[in-house]
Design goal:
Blueprint lengths: L7 H10 L3 E5 L2 E9 L4 E10 L1 H17 L4 E4 L6 H6 L13
Parallel strand pairs: 3-4
Antiparallel strand pairs: 1-2, 2-3
Amino acid sequence: MKGSGWDVSEIMEGVQRGDFHLFMHEEGCMVGEFIESPRHKVIHIFAAGGTLKAMSELGPTVEAFGRLHNCDYAAATGRKGWERYARRHGYVPARGIEKGL
């Protein structure tokens, strides 16, 4: 979970509470959450790690899970190095700004 801002115990606690969703593969995993606004519901992957094979095989699973839960978008937060990979899978990079509080 290095680089995600979370440690494994925090993520597992969130999964146990039902706040986070863990998608497992023998070569990696993804962790997601739902983000809701008045107009949209998003399945948002905020932590992932493993092989490209694992990421490629988990992607459709995450998207199907989102559709099952009435999400109209799938999103992921990651380092810039994932941008080319994400584009090949139909994702469009968004640029945001943030500030630690």
